[in-house]
């Protein structure tokens, strides 16, 4: 074991021991604190990654189960440990990888990518805006950002870097890293800009309605964030281009070369048309069948048809290690994050936070609550789980504050759901997919998530809070 690996292995263990040595906070059950100590050590391990992330996740689950930190009986503990693998988002992520494989095997992905290069390939920045516009066009119609960004856009854009000799690993920064982060950051903004672009937005409004008896329309939501949302949407490709620049910034003759490659590919093949038809079927069902068919069920149905029609084979599915690795990695993290709610840590944390704010000016309470609600997503592996666990608690806390602008606070809290989806590699379905592509290095993902997270919440608090106060009157 080399020195760096040894240090990266010891630091998570040291973090675990350090948290265990701290006295249990007042009002929190000892087991909840011990569980949080283990969870924090797992997060440190994921940042340093002395071993693959999937192993770290499995180790965390195994230790929590062996120490009986979650669940009152062995059967309850086992049910919790395996609960992450029954999460629908995880399987949607898995199928998104299979869609990508279908685009790759049939050649459709390369054909679409070549056409994009033919039109916009002279400048990498132009390709970045093509990725952003694709997400923006689909945003209002697809409540699952995993289906939209991971199942529709990612399988196409993953073919573009390869055309320019950019692959996961040493050549990723040529172009692939830039396009992948642009895709994820744009997805985050789109998910907040449109009420129907992110399922937790709709869940959030339902919780607001039940808790505060306040209704918020699609129009109110959209106009309430339009100025900042539109600015961020248009700025993301350029900001990413500046802070995480691609090595290939322009390519003279790329359009001509792409046209030649398309000519070599010849007319579109039957398998390509079949893949296109199946992708279109999935897209139509995701947009229009949401009331009677879950997005994951749609994806699995289309995957089965892909296998039956020979677009991909069963062996292709079994041998796609990247997809299976992501399934295990994200499944363990969803269970670990859910454990924080089960042991009561999140309820205690929210209560302690609201208690500390008593006596502060209204504006400060609003700013602090929104910032804390946003940043606490570092402890979640699901946007839906975050909203379900904490939004009712935060809403209940603000009701107790005299003269609190309840509708404004409710909208601010709900808006943060989308823009938090790129904070960590496990923050959401799209983040797991783009991280799993191999184009964004582990260290790069963490610092980019922190940088864009600070940028998003900073602009949000500085401009969105006063704007929304003015807009709502």
From TrEMBL:
Cellular compartment(s): Membrane
Pfam families the UniProt entry points to: Na_sulph_symp
Residue ranges crossing the lipid bilayer per the database entry: 5-26, 32-48, 55-74, 80-101, 221-244, 273-289, 295-314, 326-350, 356-376, 383-402, 408-433, 445-468
Transmembrane helix in keyword set: yes
Assigned keywords, A-Z: Membrane, Transmembrane, Transmembrane helix
Highest taxon of source: Bacteria
Primary location recorded for the protein, binned into one broad class: membrane
UniProt GO molecular function: transmembrane transporter activity
GO cellular component: membrane
Membrane topology term: Multi-pass membrane protein
Family: Belongs to the SLC13A/DASS transporter (TC 2.A.47) family. DIT1 subfamily.
UniProt protein name: DASS family sodium-coupled anion symporter
Organism this protein belongs to: Oryzomonas rubra
